[in-house]
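Collaboration report, partner site 2.

Our partner group contributed sequences for two proteins of shared interest, and the home lab folded both. The records are reproduced in the order in which they were received, starting with the first partner submission.
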Amino acid sequence: MGMSPRQGSASKIKLESFEELFGNDGRQEGSSEQILLIPLTELYPFQNHPFRVEDDEKMEETAESIRQYGVLVPGIARERTGGGYEIIAGHRRKRGSELAVKTEMPIIIRPYSDDEATIIMVDSNIQREDILPSEKAKAYAMKYEAMKHQGKKSGRNTLEEVGEAAGENAKKVQRYIWLSKLSDTLLAMVDRRKLGFSQGVDFSFLSKEAQQWYG
């Protein structure tokens, strides 16, 4: 892959066998990829990133690990139209690096399309244990739209493919996608368990104006 002048100016580390560390991600076996140390100021969050990045106890643990050992697993990003790089995987590692008073982070740069980047962004976060219903709903909706844009390739149910990374069936994925249509106020109520999941799905079929009466 050719490098832009911006990439070329970054510190370089050669990784001869990416699969040995992180598993085969669908790329040709034995391929080499370059990890660049990118300034944190040049890393931007994924557009409409649906997952929380909070300064909680787990984040402090992440920051402490980074203080001691650095970022052990590189993030993934792509070049950004307005300059810098858009993070696809590694938002929490970037925040942990900031708290650890680091100035750069190891990143693998890949030329993913919007749809490819969305799918990878969702799949890299969807198995976390602390995901809120609102996060999962928005993430599934984003991945579903991306997969529809790509078109049918496998002949399988798209909803099943959306939930595959999290081990959820098509029916559950569909309900989460319906839930994503809720207003932010009602979604927050589902997150706080002030409104049940099934009730939230029912309310999602109401217009935004009608939902305001219940928010």
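Second partner submission, folded after the first:
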Amino acid sequence: MDKLLSNIRIEVPEGIYIKNPESSQLGKKIVEHSIILIDEIGFEDFNFKKLGNRIASNESSIYRYFESKHKLLIYLSSWYWRWIEYQLVIETFSIRDTKEKLVKATEIVTRTTKEDQNFSHINEVLLNKIIINENSKSFLNKSVDAENKQGYFSPYKRVVKRFAEIISSHNATYKYPLSLASSVTEGSLHQQFIKLHFTSITNCNEVITPTHFYTDLILKTLTNEN
């Protein structure tokens, strides 16, 4: 299994990048250090000149891969959600009991990220922090509809739809599986954020995790529906 997983490639929709960063060592270096730098200084203060200085490369070389830092953020978000989908597939595939599968799926989309050694140039822990803090900036803009038509957000939507299918498998009569799946997926990011910054308005803390909250919520919601 470990050998199989090590050969898996995370595919990001074409069009987000000019040149696939997975195709060269420089491209992988751009992705690796953009994650580190955005985590350090935030997306607002991040730019390609600072990234170029960090990796000792010309700013122009980064533009050969991404036309803007906005597209780079979409790339990082897309990579993250494809990675979450990959976990959903691998970790739930052999589970036959629908409740157990639902609990596992909820855990996957809400848990605190651990580093995955199968992708050596991506620090998934830092990437998860970026998604918590910056993910909404990838689509809360005037270009969202055009970018959605181009398929840029398909990895995120695939996670929600796959999660919704697991919800429906457990309770086929529930009328709102997509709304529930998207609320849990997006809400878990929000709970992770306010757990760190607005502690007075959440019950989540170092003991009670967003996974605990959303597992309780989703099971009770689907049980009350029966």
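Feedback sent to the partner group on the second submission included the following. The CA atoms of residues 103 and 219 lie 8 Å apart. The chain is about 65% helix and 0% strand.
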